[in-house]
Every structure is written in structure tokens, then in C-alpha cells.
Records
---
Amino acid sequence: MAKITLDNLAHSYLPNPTSEDQFALKQLDHDWVDGEAYALLGSSGCGKSTLLNIISGLLHPSQGRILFDGRDVTHAPTAQRNIAQVFQFPVVYDTMTVRDNLAFPLRNRGADATYVANRVQQIAQMIGMEDMLNRKARGLTADAKQKISLGRGMVREDVNALLFDEPLTVIDPHMKWELRTQLKSLHQQFGHTMIYVTHDQTEALTFADKVVVMYDGRVVQMGTPQELFERPEHTFVGYFIGSPGMNVLDATVKGDRAVIGGTEIALGKAFGTPSGKIELGVRPEFTRLSADEGLPAKIKRVEDVGRHKIVRTDVFGTEVNVILAEGEGISPAANRVAFAPEGVNVYADSWRIKAEGEAA
């Protein structure tokens, strides 16, 4: 296992980039702790796979360094980095049995035969393929082949890091949940440094100790699932994490008051007089319907999703979502939405600003 350091790292697919916009991966300076599980989360094209391929050595960065436990590996080939990588689509040896596919990385390094047999059996049990060990990979389904890829990536215990590039794309939904749980269990048991690329927030939040949210080539926030939910540092984090995502409304803010669409509301804490594009961000969980306070709202529809109801409202032309508990009714007089002060975030040019007196 290894601590992974990204030092002044950036990458452009153009030979001579002239502006920041031409970088697929904008400057990063981060330390990823040895033995933790990270998820790289973001929409397609945000730079997740680019970063993963730089860490693995498949791609050389335009600038900066990659260090494993303080050792510069920027120019080291993939084989010398001692990592295992699992790709989006299965990579297996069709002419080999499942057993031989799983054993290949160990045999290739001269591991003891007894150890290889025991480790293969352990991994086969984890991926649910014990009864298929003697079958050839040729003819197996795509999700079965991907389970082999996952198993082969995890069979070595001495790797610096395990890298997963959207590995569950071809896995059926029930098996996805099972494999995520097993990956988490494997991490807890062996303590590998794991980096898991996904655009699926559920995968990221259930797998990782820390989620690294990327947007437009940048890391906009790295934190625990709770931190990302309660305190999104960028409006994209609020929008991307949560179902539905954070409500975001244009506002002007002065002290502990905000004005939205000509209506003034109390914020519960003071934010000074921020400049730039000012927005209020409030998750639906901290939003409620009211008959006598808050912002004027028109209820457009109500969606019952079993655990709770999602009320879709219109506030000055912006959709604002409200979550109601299961069984909670809607008053005919409810024509406004109000925000719980503890759930209100203020953003300037998409970045969260701290309230006066708020701890760093």
C-alpha cells in the first residue's frame, strides 16, 4: 500500500496548451492517505479517468509529479508502480479457465503454488465464482468476465494501490450492490489503498472513505459522504450529490438577510456583503412548505417514492424541491417554501463562503 501524492499535477491532450481551458485536468495538489478507499466522482468528461490513468502510468502528465510514499514515479512505467487496475469493460484471457485467469498475476510473479491455490479460492468465493473455476472464460457472460477482472485485480495482496475505472458498468444491479459490499469488506480486511472511478453517486458514497468530486477538470471537494451532503463546497457538489440535489437560487445577501425575487428572508447567520454571482443552496431535506413564511411557491406536482414524497415547486421561475416524510400531508394553504437556517449555504461564483464566526 502507498500514500499517493499529486504535486502540481495537470494535463492537457494538446501539445502546447495556451490557456487553462485547454487542460483536461487542471492543477491538483493532494495527498491521498495510505490504506484509505477513495472514489473519484463526477460526470462524463470531468477528468476522472485521465487522473486515474496518470496515477497508473498509462498517461504521462503535462506538468507536475506523482509520488508513492514520497518516491517520484512520474516517469516510471506501469509495471514498476506495483498497482492493479480494473477497467470499465472486462479484460480476460478467453482460452484460460477462470482459475488460471485469477492465478495469472500471482504465478507471473513466482508465488508459491499453495499460496496461489488458497488465494484464488478466497477471491473466487468473494466474487461468487467458486463453482466456475474450471470453466474456460470463453463463452461466459460479460458480467461474469468482469467479475474475473475484478478478482484478478484484487488477487495480489502486495500492491501499492488498486485502481477501478467504472468496473461495474456491465454488472447487473443486484450483483453491483453485492460486489460493492465485498470490495468494501476486502478493503477493511487488507487495507489496500483503493481508488474507484464512477459517475454513480450511490457507488461512490457506499464504497469510499473519502469521495473526491471532480468538475471541469478540477477537484472541487474531497470529503466524507456526510461532509459532502451537509456542506457542499461547490454548487456542483450540491447538485450532483443527493436525490434530488440541492436547491440553488439566485440571491443578494447582506449580513443575516437574503433577498430572492424581491422577497427578504432570514438566514440565521451573517455572511457579510459577498460580491460576485451570489446563490443560496438548500437541500430539499432542509426545505418545508408553509402557509405564512418564506418564499412564494407554486406546487407543480408531488412524487411519492415510498420512503418519502418529493414536492416539486416553482419559486420565481426556479424549481425548488421539498422532501416530506412518508404519510405527511400537504395543507391546501401551503403556498410558500421556508428554509431551516442550519441547512442554508451561501455561494459566491459557485464556491461556498463561510458564515461569520464559522470554524475553518
---
Amino acid sequence: MEAGVPIPGGRRLGLANRAARSAAVASQYQDAAEAAGYVAAHDGWGPTARYFHSRLHVVQELLKDCPGGDLLDAGCGPGMLVRRLLDTRAEKFHITACDRSPAMIEAVVDRTFDATNVELVVASIEDMPFGDASFDVVVAMGVLEYTDLPRALRELSRVVRPGGLMLVTMLNPASPYRLFEWGVYWPALRLLGRLERRLGVPAANRHGARVSGIRAVGAKTLRRMLHQVGMQPEDVVYYDLTPLVPPLDRLARRWARQWRDHPERTASRGTRRWMGTGYLVAARRPLV
């Protein structure tokens, strides 16, 4: 799914952990090759592609009832959502795409060269150069895990108009997949890589997982934090439902391919939500 392993630490990070996390986040997707690799991860039939496909489906479904207006894609990455909206609802939205990585914004340029209703901005989600109440819809997809979460949520809520909609996604730290991936699988790969280094295995052939800076919170915590910044949570949807853990999921995806034709089967608000490796919260700014 998302590359790398989460930074260790509890609710409050120490200075060393904060510095390591900031460096890990800043180092990602800073050149065109890394951005291209992120785009390529959306293709194929593996678990990463399934995760991205499921997440995009859920976001798009929740935007169906939105009449349109000014939309901000905060932490837009290479513009996968932007391109999808241009292909399906170009006449409804004026889109602003914002990302801290210039390489990602360049990738959006390549993906939206034919669009006249898209503006691109290089900026951090934690300090955006937009006025208060600038957007009818704000989407933060796959970015909050890399931020100072309270600060990022304050910024996102600040730019939402009264009555406006906010859609935010988060990796689900309580899912069986994430618990095993972060607590067993990635640490095992890193341990194996250290052993291979001692045995003289060339660096290019070693196992491992870089520290990504990911820090995720559960849906109850995220909803509470949204309340604290003046937003009213209305809906929670879990996506990328899977009972499997890595690397078993990679083997299973070679045969289970119906998710591309039926992405609705990969999401749930009901009893199957415990299997979701990620979730989305829809919230609205009150009119008064």
C-alpha cells in the first residue's frame, strides 16, 4: 500500500523523532522519477493498485451528490483525482491542485495539459496560500498521514466555505492488514536487510523498507479532531477491504481481479469495515 514504515513513537513525538519524520516526508517524491513511480503504482493488479483504486472510487462516489463549485485537492500527488474529475465532471468544478512536491505538480501538468479549469500550486497542506472560505469542496486524499495532523486540519477547515464539504482519508491503523504490515512485515524486512548487509549482499539486492513518516489515527480520533476545528463529520466509509496480510495479499491479487469492475465491493460502512486498510471521513462546515 503506502510505501515505507511508520515513524515509531506515541501521540507526542520527541525532538529526534520529529526531525526524522520531517526528513522522511520531505525526501519523498522530490524528483520526476519518484513521481513517475508513484503514478505507476496505480496500474497493474497488485495490492497497491487495488488500494488506490478503492480509495479513488470512494472519493468519487461521495462527490456524486456535490453540485460542483471551487474544489481544492490538497496534497494532490500526481493528479489522479484531478484527471478523474476532468474526465467525468469537468463542467462542474474549478479545481485547484496543491502539493508540497514540485515534482508532483509537474506530473499534474503532464496529466492536465488539456484543461482550462485547473490551477496548480506548490505549497504544504499545513500552510496554504489561500484565503479563508475559498472552496466549496476540499479533498485531502493520502496526505494527512504525513502531516502535523492538528495543524493540517486547521488549515483545511479554514479554507472551507460555510456549508462546504471536506473529504479526508486516513490509513486504518486498527485493520488486521496495517497491524501486521507495520508491526511484523516491515520490521522483518528491515531486519532481513541488516542481516544481508552483514553477509555482504549487494545493496541493490537487499530487502528493506525506508522510514516514510506515516502516522495514522483511528476514525474516532479523526472525527473528534474534525469537530475541534469546526467541522461536522457526516459519514465514514472504509475502503480496500481485505482479510489478508502481506505477503499473502500479493499472491491472492493474481487471481482475485474483480475489484476493477466492481470497486463498490472493496468499501463498506457496515459490518465488514474492520477489513478496511483505509477509511474516509466526510465532514461539512456548518452554515452558522
---
Amino acid sequence: MRSRRFVIGCAVCAAVASLTATEAAAQATSGVTRTILQQTELPGGTHVVILVAAEVAPGAEVARHTHPGIESAYVLEGECTVQVAGSPDRVVGPGQGFQIPAETAHGVKNGPRATKLAITYTVEKGKPLASPA
């Protein structure tokens, strides 16, 4: 079980410096739990689509990080502030979504209760899912 958990210095939790799409079904770090629900390799074999269920603990902060592809998220429960480089901070709640362009620095500040998200990453195969920004 320990091999399924990673210490992160950035990512959707702090920084997944070495987490690739094939390296874990679930992880928990720094107030964020992400569970990989599905992973599909796209035609051509250069990119994968990863479907993730994420839960951010009350008051948790996700340090600035980037992904080697697009992040598309939908808020199921709770409320958080999404901070994207070059854009004003945006508060998102249930029924709202957001997208982060590839290689764009971003972070999250969670509200007073847990936030649950459905996230889809379309990223380059074999690259770390997230890197510190």
C-alpha cells in the first residue's frame, strides 16, 4: 500500500514529481486524495486520458503546479478558489467546472468543507502527471 502513496511537493496536492499515469490507483497527500478511476491510451500512443476522483480537505491548499496536458475539472461538492497564472482567482462550487491549459501554473485554496471533484487529464504518456511550478 505504501508504494501507492507518494510524497508530493506540488501537484493536485503539492507536487507529483514522479507520478505517471500507470503508477497508482490511489494516493493521499497534503489534504488531497486522488483516485484514478480509468486510464485510456489515445490512438497514436503519445497521450493518455486519466479520469480521477479527487477530494480536497477543508482549508487545504494545493501548491502551484503544472500538467503535461489539459486538466478539466467539475465540482461535485464543496467550494474552492482556483488560481491560474495570468487569470484572476476564480471561486468554483457544485455544478461548475474549469479547465487548465497544458503547462500552465495553477493552485487551489479550498473552502471550509471538503470539496469533491471529477477531473479528466489528457496528458503526454510517460511524463509526470504534475510538476512543481
---
Amino acid sequence: MGVADIARSAEHRLARSQVRRKARAGWEPRATGFTGYGSPERARVMGRVLMKDPASAETGNERGWRQFITAQVAHTPVTVELGSQRIGTRTNDEGYFEVIITGHGLEPGWHTARITLAIGGHQELAPVVIIPDTVTRGIVSDVDDTIMVTMLPRAALAAWNSWVKKTNTRKPVAGMAGFLRSLRGPEDPVFYLSTGAWNTYDTLTAFIRDHGYPRGPLLLTDWGPTPTGLFRSGPEHKRVRLRNLLIDFPHITWTLVGDDGQHDPMIYSDLVAEHPDRIELVAIRELSSREHVLAHGSTTAIEQPGNYHGVPALFGADGDDLARYWDELNRGA
């Protein structure tokens, strides 16, 4: 048995122990519904089931570490209702579930899915956006150091920002909300793709709302061990989710927004090389020398600038810079 297998086994034993202990203390399984998305033909609904204290009220101003101290409920039955369809599923080892619902019969726009737990019958609602087949443009934006000042992945600073600082103190990158708004048409979808954990979903949703960013689904990940390693691959998570979007929405060409502090230039370059007809624009926020030092210990980007194979690309220090270059690009078109 490898180290990753040992870690996964220990994690699952600890989770089962936490669930039993919290149940004895009066806690109950509760679902969290993440923002779903889809087309008039099919939609994805996602969520997680955790043990929650029914007597406790969240204030939205907790220390960040509280988001990560959870007791997931594995292999519990869940029913998801969306439009005219009702589908049963079970949570996985980490308490997550994801279903694809076809034939839901919903018109384009924002709707609500209902999630019901078989144990206790608790119900939760999840927003779902149905994107019209007539829409031909969309945006995918990174989160950390692209729309929110985080300076990941340097471990000490990441721990401070994610675990110690209160969840309502995150700072937006200057001008990025306005830049994203300037890119999109009235119905164009915006997806927020991050290597951050699903535990931060509520915090990030509030951050996007409170700082004027366009509403849209978050595509996050789980930080736990996998069959092949102690931690999930952030770049691979982004690649998989990007390819899923290309498959789910074959009629949409995408604008990719990121920063040069992690792997966005490489990931976006690869996607452009594979699907040059599906990418309309790449916009990269360039971190300052100080931000690069804080992010990964060097004064320069950790990778070479991306090769976007003729796809227009913008580079700027913040959203105001990118918006200005976007205006210049449009005037020159």
C-alpha cells in the first residue's frame, strides 16, 4: 500500500469517527448546493453533505480555518430535483455529489434545484443557470491573484490568507470586476475556475457578489489525497474543467482570464494549441515583483509567457490596465 492509499484510508476513518461523534452531540447531515449550470438539453448540479450544528448560525465573518474543519458524510443517499426531473444519487468518499440531468425542460436563465437528504429529510436549494444555445461567447476566470488578492501558492502566506484572516477581509484586484463586466454580453456566462477547495465556496460566492463581479458558477476542487498522490493536481483540475466546458457548450468560444503567478499561462497555452477555434481572447494579470516573491519566492514568473498561437492576448498589472488594452484592441479591430 502506497503513502497516498494510507493517507486516504486515514482520512476516511477520521471522517467516519467525526460523523459519529458529531451525531452524538446532536449535529445533523446537511447539504450545501453549489452553483450548477447547463444548457436547455442538460445541466450539472453539484453539492456536498456535511455534519452541521443546527443550533449554530454562521456569520460570514469567521476565521478562515473554520471552513476547513468539516465532517463529510460519505455514501449517503441524495435526491436532486431540477425542472421536471428527479434523480437519486449518493455522495462519494468526501461527501460530494454531482449529477447530470437531461430533459429538465427549463428555459434559459437562473433556476433552483432542490436537494433532499434521505437521512433526516433535510432539503437545500442550489442555484442553476441555464445558458441559451444562442449564446456564442463566454468567460472563464481564475480566482486567486486574478480577481482576489491571495498570493498563492507560497505555503506560509497561503496558510495565513486562507486559515487565519477572517473570511470577509479578502481584497479584490483593482479594476477586475469592471474588466470582466466589460467583456461580457447580457447573456454571456462567466465561470470562476480555481484550485481552491470547495470548503471556501460560501466565502467566494459572497466575495463575488459583494465586490461587483458578474454572477456565475464556481469550479473548485478538493484538497484531499487521491489514488495517485497526497494532494490533487491543481493544473490537472483546471485542464479537466476547461475541457468539460468545451464539451458542455460546443457553440461557445471562450475568453480565458488568469495571472502569471501560478500555471495559468501554460494551461491556457495548451488549451489554445488543442482548440484554437474555441478560444477568442486570453487576458493575463501580471503580478508585480513583490507579488511574485510572496507567491513563489522569485521576482519573476515561474514559467515562460504563454504561446497563444495567434489568439489575441492582453497583459496588464490589474483590471484597469487590461480594460484599457481591451478598448485599444477593439478600436484597432
